[in-house]
């Protein structure tokens, strides 16, 4: 069925995170500031033990590079992703820069050129990773100010640092421009997507179609699956890793208050929400295309067409479109069309339903996803690298990871093991979304997918009842009410 952005009421089972993720017992004491070892996945510092928990101050210190030390890339990604739950990115960068200035004595004159030349490449590497992985953080002018300040301090020791600064700012500007353009285009598409007036199907006497159908635009299931993959990858491309964290902001368990970084600014989950809206639109588009035709044979043909499209999506590795199509075909206005379904070959549909069966916490789907992920890792072409997960389930997995494990342990330490698992799941997604779509765009099909009018829920029921009469009193009453509403509007 169509999805909504994650909330506590929409989930029924926990899933997707390591059973090793456990909080310390309430009476357990740990040395303040000392990284802790433990079972399960963990990030390591360079030549250091795995970290499962530590104070926020210690974690910040471990992020700060020196002339002889640079944190592992996995640690950098994990901490930059999760730290925003405890401290705004601008404050984090400020504290990193302050520690760099103090440790490297960058506020003194003259500078120790030899020391700074050893330190310079490492702080530039950290800033490069930050701007490349979390560019939206730098929409905040304070972030850009901190970046410029620290590089200005080391630049007198090496002219190359000025060039690096200019290149970094230029690339950052390009990334932010692309992000803004993508967000604007997604919003524009959402606004242009219209709905069919419900009155157009009221009391219909089997007239000619009131709009083009998908078969008049594309009658090749493989081609349509390719274009759906274009849409999916375009949406994925604009979802930043920070949106997964910002979607699940919690109160600090230590004092019960909302973290300042989110009480003072709106959560930025625009792209994530737009992707959920796309899933819902595709569900309703499928249902509309099936309920719209006046003749039973045409409806049956449409059902079989979408079954073939869904199968091609599965073969491509586009599980999100696959689930949207199945969800649309399982909506009550479609599933109740028994006479229509009796004219279709449903064996392939049942196989696809089995693949996406929620039983066993979507065991069959997760097995297929692992297979697609393995294929992607060993692929020689972008065609084989495509992995588009069922997005709502990914969100649920992250939601339950967030709900099932506290952000902080009883002693106040950050539960870093939890955030390592979060980073693993988000990191997988980040890898998948970077694949370039290998299929040629068909603008006519893409335009139709984005703008073809769709029925509202009431419109779907009305079209369904007009196609196949109500079978019981409940359906008759609803049909009567819907027809009355349409008459009242006209």
Automatic annotation (TrEMBL):
Keywords from UniProt, A to Z, are:
Guanine-nucleotide releasing factor
Domain called Ras-GEF: residue spans: 220-470
Q: Name one GO molecular function term.
A: guanyl-nucleotide exchange factor activity
- The portions of this protein that span the membrane are none
Q: Please give the CDD domains that the UniProt record associates with this protein.
A: RasGEF, REM
Which Gene Ontology cellular component terms are annotated?
Answer: plasma membrane
Flavoprotein keyword on record: no
Pfam families registered for this protein in UniProt: RasGEF (PF00617), RasGEF_N (PF00618)
Where in this chain does the record put each N-terminal Ras-GEF domain? 47-177
Q: Which Gene3D superfamilies match?
A: Ras guanine-nucleotide exchange factors catalytic domain, Son of sevenless (SoS) protein Chain: S domain 1
Chain segments carrying region Disordered:
17-42
Q: Which PANTHER family does the record cross-reference, listed alphabetically?
A: GUANINE NUCLEOTIDE EXCHANGE FACTOR, RAS-GEF DOMAIN-CONTAINING FAMILY MEMBER 1C
Q: What is the name attached to this protein's record?
A: RasGEF domain family member 1C
The protein's organism comes out as Fundulus heteroclitus
């Amino acid at each position: 069925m169509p999805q909504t952005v994650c909330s506590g009421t929409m989930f029924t089972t926990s899933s997707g995170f390591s059973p090793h993720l456990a909080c310390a017992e309430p009476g357990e004491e740990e040395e303040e500031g000392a990284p802790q070892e433990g079972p399960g996945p963990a990030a390591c510092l360079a030549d250091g033990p795995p970290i499962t928990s530590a104070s926020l101050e210690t974690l910040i210190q471990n992020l700060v590079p020196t002339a002889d030390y640079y944190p592992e890339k996995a640690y950098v990604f994990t901490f930059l992703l999760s730290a925003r739950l405890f401290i705004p990115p601008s404050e984090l960068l400020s504290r990193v820069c302050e520690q760099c200035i103090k440790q490297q004595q960058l506020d003194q004159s003259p500078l120790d050129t030899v020391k700074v030349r050893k330190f310079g490449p490492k702080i530039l590497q950290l800033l490069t990773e930050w701007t490349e992985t979390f560019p939206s953080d730098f929409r905040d002018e304070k972030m850009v100010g901190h970046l410029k300040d620290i590089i200005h301090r080391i630049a007198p020791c090496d002219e190359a640092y000025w060039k690096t600064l200019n290149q970094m700012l230029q690339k950052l500007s390009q990334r932010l421009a692309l992000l803004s353009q993508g967000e604007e285009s997604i919003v524009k598409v959402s606004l242009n997507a219209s709905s069919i007036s419900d009155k157009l199907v009221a009391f219909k006497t089997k007239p000619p179609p009131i709009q083009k159908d998908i078969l008049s635009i594309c009658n090749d299931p493989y081609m349509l699956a390719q274009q759906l993959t274009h849409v999916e990858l375009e949406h994925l491309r604009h979802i930043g890793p920070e949106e997964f964290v910002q979607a699940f902001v919690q109160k600090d368990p230590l004092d019960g208050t909302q973290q300042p970084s989110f009480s003072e600014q709106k959560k930025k989950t625009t792209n994530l929400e737009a992707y959920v809206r796309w899933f819902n639109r595709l569900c309703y588009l499928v249902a509309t295309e099936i309920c719209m035709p006046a003749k039973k044979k045409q409806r049956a043909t449409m059902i079989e067409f979408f079954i073939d499209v869904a199968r091609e999506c599965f073969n491509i590795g586009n599980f999100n479109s696959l689930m949207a199509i199945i969800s649309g075909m399982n909506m009550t206005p479609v599933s109740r069309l028994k006479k229509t379904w009796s004219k279709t070959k449903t064996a392939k549909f049942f196989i696809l339903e089995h693949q996406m069966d929620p039983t066993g916490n979507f065991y069959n789907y997760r097995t297929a996803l692992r297979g697609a992920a393995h294929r992607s890792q060993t692929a020689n072409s972008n065609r084989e690298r495509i992995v588009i997960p069922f997005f709502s389930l990914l969100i649920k997995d992250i939601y339950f990871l967030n709900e099932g494990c506290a952000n902080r342990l009883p002693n106040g330490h950050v539960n870093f093991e939890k955030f390592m698992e979060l980073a693993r799941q988000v990191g997988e997604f980040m890898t998948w979304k970077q694949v370039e779509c290998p299929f040629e765009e068909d603008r006519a099909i893409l335009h139709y997918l984005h703008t073809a009018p769709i029925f509202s829920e009431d419109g779907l029921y009305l079209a369904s009842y007009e196609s196949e009469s109500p079978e019981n009193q409940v359906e008759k009453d609803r049909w009567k009410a819907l027809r009355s509403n349409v008459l009242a509007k006209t």
